[in-house]
Write a structure and sequence with these properties.
By secondary structure, this protein is an alpha+beta fold. It is built from 18 helices and 16 strands. Helix 15 packs across helix 17. The protein starts with a helix and ends with a helix.
Length: 579
């Protein structure tokens, strides 16, 4: 945009006046003998205002002038600093600090059997265009019908997000034209969403929690999917996804870092998974996050220019994309190129670890919303809400609190509640009588290692929670040792020892029952001592560290079946008899 010579002249004169004013305030500030006086405070405030005004003037001139004007603006900022600067005034030594403001829009595919407004299957991974019909393909005369299960899942999610559920909401038409949108509009909810004004408690990486507000959660239908074949001059459209029910969850801009945003996304996924609302698989597109990032000087109320970032398919990707985008915007502003931070949509390039511009978002899109004429208003009565609440499962935050009350560490609790299958397996072991700490130890160590190695979830394990509880009970009672437990674990993981009493029978069949009878243990101890007279003489001569040697020999002789506590007592009795 070109500006008139008069505008440029006025901007130049404005710089000169501001510079003179700054120098005047600096002189008065230097003359004040008391740095803590009221006058000094007034000087400080005037200096900050003048500095911000001059920076604003510099940006205006940068937009209106050529390279010479750009050089002049940078020169003023770099070299015209006050003689005796206040710490709050930006100089080469005290650089302006920035803070980020981050909000997230999360699209969650609801786990219904059919699509939002027709009877086509809601099924991922099918052959292209095999789950379509006149309704989701927008054929003339085809009318939509609301999926009742979609509404129940949306209300369930809204309650899980601590939202207020609207007694009456409505559907609207959102007009935009994409090749993968058959109708030429999307059925969504505009001004009256089904849920609003909620919040969640987010568990941050350092163990603390942060409350993040939920602006709204509204229902809408998904679009189809375009497939771009490399080297081809055309794209293919798969409409299986068109019409799949979505819940869009919009957060308040309460986050300030990539780590916090990733933690928020992870908690949203836990909520929808624990409630059975969605599988939350980001790699399948069942949950998609778009983040909005802006930066501003610390303490300033006015927000910076918002940039939307898309195409993140993992929480680590979300954190990296946000951190990169914050650094990109701050770097541009500090270089005097703040005008290059524009309202736009950028995509995250996972390979290059950078965001790239995709399309401008200057101005609000004209979606021409109007009420969907083919669908009635959506009513949610108090009786309906009560029924939904009765069917709701335990939230991850509630499960964390319950597991913590069992005496588990925060670390163990976070691992056990990170995944639905793991939490349910742990609950199953508790229900079968396993002590919480012992069950958690086995689940988070040996069983988790097996799941990682075999690419299984806990729900797919052949070893049932009740069998794990039985094995732990055998160890606690002294029937087998912990070492024997680890020895039989591979058989249990392969399905052996299943059913009530199956673990004990497996141990008996293998001849691995722990030897706890004192007379049987003493016979083994005496045999070992008789077979190692030299070491026995050395022990009794003062080399007491050989006790470990004798313990190992007895365990070897008993094939690991000796009861460790009873063995140590009897062994020490024999070793010290003649001392």
């Amino acid at each position: 945009m070109q500006h008139s010579p008069g505008q440029n002249t006025r901007a130049s004169a404005r710089w000169t006046l501001l510079q003179d004013a700054i120098e005047s305030v600096t002189a008065q500030q230097s003359a004040d003998a008391s740095p803590n006086s009221r006058a000094a405070a007034l000087h400080e405030g005037r200096m900050q205002m003048l500095w911000e005004e001059r920076c604003s003037c510099s940006v205006t001139s940068l937009n209106s002038g050529g390279s010479r004007r750009r050089w002049a603006a940078r020169s003023v900022i770099a070299h015209a600093a006050p003689v005796a600067p206040s710490p709050s005034v930006p100089t080469a030594e005290t650089e302006v600090q920035f803070e980020a403001t981050i909000g997230i829009e999360t699209h969650v595919q609801l786990a219904t059997a059919t699509k939002a407004f027709c009877n086509c299957a809601n099924e991922y991974g099918s052959e292209p265009n095999t789950h379509i019909c006149p309704v989701c393909m927008a054929h003339p005369g085809a009318l939509p019908v609301v999926n009742d299960e979609m509404v129940r899942l949306a209300v369930t999610a809204g309650l899980g997000l601590n939202c207020a559920i609207a007694p009456q909401s409505k559907f609207d038409r959102k007009q935009y034209f994409y090749p993968d949108l058959p109708k030429g509009y999307q059925i969504s909810q505009y001004d009256v969403p089904i849920a609003a004004n909620g919040h969640i408690e987010v568990l941050l990486p350092d163990g603390s929690t942060q409350r993040v507000g939920i602006t709204r959660a509204h229902l809408e239908e998904d679009a189809g999917k375009l497939m771009h074949e490399e080297g081809s001059d055309h794209s293919l459209a798969d409409y299986n996804r068109a019409g799949v029910p979505l819940l869009e969850i919009v957060s308040e801009p309460d986050m300030t870092s990539g780590a916090a945003a990733a933690a928020y996304g992870a908690e949203i996924r836990r909520i929808v998974r624990f409630l059975g609302v969605s599988n939350g698989n980001m790699q399948d597109g069942s949950m998609r996050c778009d983040v909005n990032v802006s930066v501003k000087p610390v303490g300033r109320k006015q927000l910076g220019t918002k940039v939307e970032v898309k195409n993140m398919n993992s929480f680590s990707g979300i954190a990296k994309a946000i951190d990169y985008e914050i650094e990109r915007q701050v770097t541009l502003i500090r270089a005097g190129r703040g005008d290059e931070v524009v309202s736009e949509t950028r995509g995250w390039d996972e390979n290059a670890q950078v965001t790239r511009g995709q399309r401008s978002k200057e101005g609000l899109a004209d979606y021409r919303f109007f009420p969907e004429p083919d669908l009635p208003a959506l009513s949610v009565t108090e009786q309906y809400l009560a029924r939904v609440k009765e069917l709701m499962r335990e939230l991850p935050s509630e499960k964390r609190a319950r597991f913590s009350s069992l005496g588990l560490s925060d670390y163990d609790v976070s691992l056990l509640t990170d995944d639905v299958a793991t939490a349910e397996y742990f609950d199953g072991a508790l229900a079968a009588g396993a002590p919480a700490k012992l069950a958690a130890n086995w689940i988070l160590s040996d069983l988790s290692k097996h799941c990682n190695e075999t690419q299984q979830t806990f729900s797919e394990l052949a070893l049932q929670p009740a069998s794990l509880a039985e094995m732990i009970s055998l160890i606690e009672s002294g029937t087998i040792s912990g070492k024997i437990g680890k020895q039989i674990l591979p058989d249990l993981l392969n399905g052996k020892g299943a059913g009530e009493g199956g673990v004990k029978k497996l141990v008996e069949d293998k001849g691995l029952l722990q030897i706890s009878d004192p007379s049987a243990l003493m016979a083994i101890v005496d045999s070992v001592l008789a077979g190692n007279p030299t070491q026995l003489e050395q022990y009794r001569g003062g080399k007491t560290k050989l006790q470990g040697f004798f313990v190992g020999q007895v365990m070897k002789e008993s094939k690991g079946r000796a009861n460790p506590a009873e063995l140590n007592k009897l062994l020490m009795q024999r070793l010290n008899e003649e001392l």
